[in-house]
Predict the structure.
Amino acid sequence: MEPWVVATSLIFIYLLATIVLGVIANQRMTVDMEDFLLYGRQAGFIVLYLTVVATFHSAFAFLGSGGFFYTHGIGFWAAGTWTLLVGAITYVLGPRIWALGKANGYITPADMLADFYESEAVRVAVAIVSVVFTILYIQVQAQGLGYIINVASGDRISFEIGTLILLIVAAAYLMAGGLRAVYWTDVIQGVWMYVAVWVGAMYLAYDLFGGPLQLWAEVRAQRPDLLSLPGPEGFFTPGMWIGMTITLSFGIIFQPHMMIRYYTAVDAKTLKLLGATTPIYLMTLYVPAALVGLGGAVAMPGLDVPDRIFPELLFAHAPPILTGVILAGATAAAMSTLDSILHANMSVLTRDVYQRYVAPDREQSHYVWVGRGIVAALLVVGYFLSVRTFDFLVVLVTLSGSGALQLMPAIVGVCFPTRRTLTRTGVLAGLLVGLGTLYVTLVVTPHPLGLHGGVWALLFNVATAVGVSAVTDPPTEATRDRIHGEVERQIYPETSS
Amino acid sequence: MSQQRRSHFVPRTPEGRVAVVAFLLLFFLSMPPVTHRLLDRPETWVGGVPFLFAALFVVYTALIAVLVWAWRKGI
């Protein structure tokens, strides 16, 4: 049997499995917004762990990271820093967001921020930022999916058709089973992608070089420029290293599809364990990516699209079944992020826009059906965004992260009680200045003075938020007592009773 | 009420302070200028892998150990 038949068949078997899980999840679902959007706030450690890591690692982990090592060398091992920060942020921030969500019935990030800052303008601004910047992420994942199936089929299934098929499958199981379907499929996807990337990388290392250590030695002999900072093209300057660490940790955590996961945990202790252990998975996934990217630079130099290195090596050197299993893992990596983003956007648009401003007092089942309709609309938008251009994946991921990063002052203001707090005017002004600065420092003059544009934007954002808050009215005492008091009780129960 | 307005940016227990200081110190080891001035030694190899790769792997592992220690201590 030809390799492309095996590879494509395995991907379709995998897709079938996700649809079956969606149907089963649908049978377990109750017609209730908390169940449909938040898994009934009952996610235990294993399910939450695998959905968080699978959602964090996307098509980029399979394609973009290998491409980055291939082009810019060992500097991409900086990836470990942002995976560690993701764990630490989850450890510190997760229990606070979980406690506030449970106590006040929050479903979206905008629920929390609008409640504390007592402002519908804050709700709308946060909802807009949440949707606009994560739609870019839909594009990234959908493009990755289309590309994977295009490569797996040996160009027999076009990029456009591949993208459409995989978007429809992800939307279908999301509409059927809500967040429960997303979480269950993420469990499979999380395991599959981890095993696939390790097995694929090790197979290639042994087949091409005789083992990982021989691979490193060969890179040293043939491409020593890949083994020092800032890399062959001078990309990994200190400013970029720091900037990527911040934008790809805080910036991704503050995207709605990650923050909503904190609401879904069964308890705060689960979230702390999650924070302590997720970096094990997240960080170690970049070890095989380094082997693929650096080894690929020696074994297959001169690729026009460096992101293609992993699948190109597999097709050239691995048996068809192994290639199929691994590309199905790549599909899993992209779909696990895509379905979560579709779900988060559905939640934001249903909760923060439709329920709030269009039809406030309808039955729960009505909102569930509206949510399904929104997923269908997002599918169409995502598809048209995806088929326009194929660009280097990490640039778009970084842009997405930088946008959501601008929510940081507002979120920290809610979750970390202080004597002086930020105000609604302060966070709105900071957000506006931050987004304006982001446009200048990422689009007009990218990364001024070698510092990542997202960090410039955050600095201006924080300065504005603090400055304006000093001269405007804070939230009422009653609101601060209720919300900061809840955080105090959660984090320091022994002293707050 | 004054209890509720105590800052959450400063740890209140000795173990909390140890965890924060250990995490920050280790984290700075994975950041410039340490990475670009001290760890970037292309001529030095450890166990068959470049020094930068090996050193950062050790730092990352130590950071995970700090997080797990904090969790075990109930911080």
